[in-house]
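Blackboard transcription, Thursday session:
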Amino acid sequence: MIEGLIGFAAMGILMMLRLPIAISMAVVGFVGVGLLRSWPAAISTTATEIIGISSYSLSVIPLFVLMGNFITRAGMSRDLYQAAYSLIGHRRGGLSMSTVVACAGFGAICGSSIATVATMARVAMPEMKRFNYDPAFAAGSICAGSTLGILIPPSVILVIYGIMTEQSIGALFAAGLIPGIIATLFYLGACVFVTRRQPGAGPAGERIDWPGRMRALRHIWGVLLLFGIVMGGMYGGLFTPTEAAGVGAMGGFLFALARRTLSVAVIRDILMESARTTAMLFTILIGAMMFSNFLNFTSLPSDLRDLVTYFDVAPLIVVVAICLVYVILGMAMESLSMMLLTVPIFYPLIVQLGLDPIWFGVIVVCVIEISLITPPIGLNIFVLSNEVPDVPTPMIWRGVLPFIAADILRMGVLIAFPAITLFLPVLLDL
Amino acid sequence: MNRTTDALGLVPAVALFAIMLLTFSDVVGRKLFGHSITGSVELTELLQVIMVFAILPATSLLGGHVVFDLLDRVLLERLQRIVYRLSNGATGLVFAAAAWAVSLRAERTLEYGDMTSQYGITLWPFHYMIAIALLLTALAHGYLAVTGRRITLAPR
Amino acid sequence: ETVLTVSRWVPAGHLMSHAMLDWCGKVKDATSGRVSCEMLPKGVAPPAQTFDAVRDGLADMSFGVHGYTPGRYTLTGLAELPFLGETATATSVAYQRIYEKHLAKFDEHRGLKVITVFTHGPGVIFNTQKPIATVADMQGLKFRTGGGTINRISNALGANVTLKPATESYELLSSGVMDGVFFPNESVRTFKLEKLIKYATTFPGGLYNTSFAFVMNADTWKGIPEQDQKIIDGLSGEAAARLFGGYWDKGDSESAELQHEVGIELTRADEAFVAEVKDLTKDIETDWIERAGKAGLENPAAVLAEFRADIAKLSD
Ligand code: NA
Ligand code: NA
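(Written on the board underneath:)
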């Protein structure tokens, strides 16, 4: 147990010294394996994990990233926002609610929360300013809404969880859908709650007549089509999740092409940006695998298990405790690295306790969503404050609070009723 | 800077586009013509290696790795710059060590004669390519450490 | 006192995990506890890199599949040919004998102490669409293979094959992306395919097989005192081949029972079908003979004949 804890401490120090998180994990993994096994073994595991990046099943990651980038370029976020606005914009808090709904729709074709927050900020923020929204409330709804994309399939984070734990990606995606819809409803509830307590925070927008609504809705057929093809094809026996990513990327490409948003230079930019994101993700994955190989030689996972067995703790308590650890870690850590670091420790425990690994994956993603918007380190908050420099960061922190409350409420529901999460995977026999 | 990164990015961009086309045609071929593309899995794997490692030096040069930079905000600017240079130097050394570890494996791949299963493509050139890419990545970090520069792409 | 670190890339409940632990238990008893094993919670490397990982000392022991690294092993290919034997025990024991007698000296396992080589049970065709009783029945069906000799066999039979990881089998079959797989009986149960598969076709001796080795790091072996080395040697080779083969056979029969229970329709390939397959796959055998000859093996055809004869003798 002690070696494992020393490893964690060493990694924390390296990270504080501004070494990339991937490098910090790799260094600790390397030295740990070197000391616990031998140096040739450490060199071997380094080469194996680096070359292991070629693995076919990982190709799902660059392809879903690429799909999201094509879609972002095609300007889908604006259309989604306008469609949502035309339906609910005239209500009190309607612009925030439109933002949340548009984010959810965008999340259905994009797996990354960063892309969502950046584009939605450009689309929704000016509108909310025009209607004199409370900037904190406006920023909060963009920040929180953007996290929906990593739970609603397709989701890069769920893919990485699936690869780490060898769980079916199809089952994980199916499991993410209903909790994603619940999350959207809870966020809408948060919007209603805020505007009820403070009506000035979100004045009503213009009412759009039905012909206008139909016009706005007509523009979002592409999103529905693409989501339909990717999910329908995956569960209808046309292709595997990995292949779905390729089909989705191709669909995004054709869609952006049809909208005349692509030139050769733009295509090259999108491809290079997606490749860079992939290289960054894969470097973290290599580091995490090396760190997890080190943990494999320590007694940390088994000691943790013995501890739980010894104190005879109820599985539910263990899950709640794990979630608390995540929320605390999530305040200070970047989300993907946090998941990659902790899954090798918590996952065996979950399996040991007889809990469902698919359900746990969704729970982990939900907690990661929270970590994206909790101060002081919340990726979405950072991205948003870059996009809207005139809104001070502490104001964004205040704005996300009601949404964090909605998140915690949703976590409670999902933990108490695993059947909600597992309904679709069971229905689809995955 | 854009011109340099464009040149560096051409190979990985083409590789990623090829992966997309390959996966898509594989599905279409299987569904419409009853035959998938022979060896699409191993071709994807090789293209993926090319994509990831060809873009890695540029990723590092552009500061693309996730760094815990919360302390940056509280450090004095002078100290911040020193930490930036030192951490890039250390990261460069780690990448150089990784290059060496992979080159050892590449040597063995050559000795074993490992190849892909469908087309029998020999693997050692790819493993040496990874080692070289890691070395270039190490040099990119070395450059950042020596010059102290922070490079961002100019918006187009 | 030596504690051997054992790595596995299959789940904890897999028969290979049990087989390795069983072997370890025998070693521990025979050495009065001087040599024992510790199973790592998870594998130290992906399946294809396992031999390298043991060679580099990442783990002291593990088992691997020769076919996962094409181009590296030539001679072991004889244990992957069609129509070898009805039980894993017979093919494993005969394989280990022929390996010791003719193949070991070529040192294809550099840096490794080979405890034993072995095979699984006879390879079967499983599919979700229709009974397969002739080569023509296979046309138009989409099969997943994991590469290696079975890939060549299925290509020769004109099947539409795609190489995908074995762990994706369930997803591929349940979604209808693929219609069938080639596996030993045992794997239907391991990958929980019994609800998806409707038809099975078995061949006398199996349509294909897979060559495995259970290995130890060479330096670890040198570090074990001579008296214990002798004891371990007594539990290795044929004894270990029998043990591993036995576990595969047990897995096969349990899975066959399950398949019967859930009503999977079983077809036993008749003579005409076997002759058809033999004809279409004879190149694969001559190809092995040629490559083994190039690798330095004297009279590979005779070695193969000896191997087949020994399997037949052991099967009686
Ligand atoms: Na998504
Ligand atoms: Na956070």
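Lecturer's comment: Residues A 107, 110-111, 149, 152-155 surround sodium ion (ligand 1) (CB under 6 Å).
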